[in-house]
Design brief:
With 351 residues, the protein is of the alpha+beta class. It is built from eight helices and 21 strands. The protein folds into two domains: 2-41 and 143-205 and 289-350, FAD/NAD(P)-binding domain (3-Layer(bba) Sandwich); 87-136 and 206-287, D-Amino Acid Oxidase, Chain A, domain 2. Helices cover 28% and strands 28% of the residues. Helix 1 links the parallel strand 1 and strand 2. Bound molecules: flavin-adenine dinucleotide. Flavin-adenine dinucleotide binds at residues 7-13, 30-35, 37-38, 40-44, 163-164, 189-193, 210-212, 243-244, 283, 285-286, 308, 310-316.
Length: 351
């Protein structure tokens, strides 16, 4: 018997599993590879919304919790997953430079925004107005993390690479039974796949498809992440990720020619060196109308929980949201109201 069944092995499921492991609780995780968001993600962590020059939701708190979480995990797994990389925000005009200086006075931002303008020193980039540098940023290599984490679970016999069939779940007085497996409860971390979950599919999960290109550009020679119309994310060996797109009405998992064109149109004006496109990936971000996570307990089946709605910031949100959910499960600690899925269950019941 496991204490909990975890459904989904993306960033949410991994963070939940690791949180249980650190707390000494047992689990068994199911993953069917039907969703790809966590595997294809750019993996950036950056608490500043660079378009609007605001601190992202709970940005400083998420950094304080989640970065040490990945550092600990990196040491335990023995795999280099936390790459500290500077993010440089390209200024398109003098006005954008001024907006950067104004943003320094916004609450919480001064620790993250470098007050200097950094002139462009890379001849392969078109950036006459220079860059602003964001501090304490980096990238989690989500592909390497999830592969290494999955391997440790497989070796320990804690992973089933099959679809969880919701109709086979039986509710018991003190827990659940799933095909003969007894557990205290089930924690659903299914990403956009949640729409196929009869217990939680009334929650308003929207999908936002995202695509990224991998390019090879030997003359670019850039170590920082560059943010202009798109992100350019250095991977090493002359490879860079370029992205991402946002599409709200396409729920297919495949890369599209349209997204490729969009990305290249945004890339070409500020890349002044030859490059070739080597690959393209796609995934569906689990987004929520109010752009906050969906975390909590089912109103009628208290043994069922949800951890979802990580949107476009899964790297920073997943470990923190998992810790909040464990606080609820283990100690009955109330969830931060903004992430509590009860905000939508209440609406649903009232309507
Ligand atoms: C192109 C792109 C770029 C991104 N870049 C960034 C970035 O730079 N930084 C950042 O923080 N975030 C980024 N994101 C967002 C981030 O990827 C998501 O927030 C995060 O991956 C969501 O994680 P998740 O575990 O909730 O969902 P998912 O990654 O979708 O994982 C859900 C898992 O559940 C499994 N599953 C579902 N149903 C079942 C079932 N019935 N049985 C078994 N398994 C099941 C799926 O197979 C999947 O493995 C990006 C997303 C995309 C698409």
């Amino acid at each position: 018997m496991a204490d909990y069944l975890i459904i989904g092995g993306g960033l949410a499921g991994m963070a939940m599993a690791e949180t249980l492991q650190q707390a000494g609780a047992s689990f068994h995780l199911f993953d069917d590879s039907s969703q790809r968001a966590s595997h294809v993600a750019g993996g950036l962590y950056n608490p500043v919304v660079l378009k609007r020059m605001n601190l992202s939701w709970q940005g400083d708190r998420l950094m304080a919790h989640s970065i040490p979480f990945y550092e600990t995990l990196q040491a335990r797994l023995g795999v280099h997953i936390d790459l500290k990389q500077t993010v440089l925000r390209r200024f398109a005009s003098i006005q954008e430079q001024n907006a950067w200086f104004e943003a320094l006075d916004k609450p919480g931002l001064s620790d993250f925004l470098d007050p200097k303008i950094h002139p462009n020193r890379n001849p392969a980039l078109e950036a006459p107005h220079g860059f602003g540098r964001v501090r304490h940023t980096g990238r989690i290599d989500t592909g390497a993390l999830l592969a290494a984490y999955g391997e440790t679970l497989r070796e320990a016999g804690l992973l089933s690479t099959s679809a969880f069939e919701h109709e086979a779940l039986e509710m018991r007085q003190d827990g659940v039974n799933y095909k003969g497996m007894e557990a205290r409860g089930v924690i659903f971390c299914e990403g956009f796949g949640m729409l196929g979950n009869p217990y939680f599919n009334t929650l308003p999960l929207q999908g936002t498809k995202g695509e990224l290109l991998t390019i090879r550009a030997p003359e670019l020679q850039e170590a920082s992440v560059i943010k202009s119309g798109v992100f350019i994310i250095p991977l090493g060996n002359d490879r860079y990720r370029v992205g991402a797109t946002y599409a709200w009405n396409d729920y297919t998992q495949e890369p599209t020619a349209r997204a490729r064109e969009q990305l290249l149109t945004k890339l070409k004006p500020f890349l002044r060196c030859p490059f070739e496109v080597e690959g393209q990936v796609a995934g569906i971000r689990p987004t929520v109308p109010d752009r906050r996570p969906l975390v909590g307990q089912h109103p009628d089946h208290p043994q069922l929980y949800v951890l979802n709605g990580l949107g476009s910031r899964g790297v920073l949100i997943a470990p923190y949201a998992a810790a909040c959910l464990w606080g609820l499960i283990c100690e009955g600690r109330p969830l931060p109201p903004e992430m509590d899925a009860a905000r939508y269950f209440r609406t649903h019941t009232a309507s």
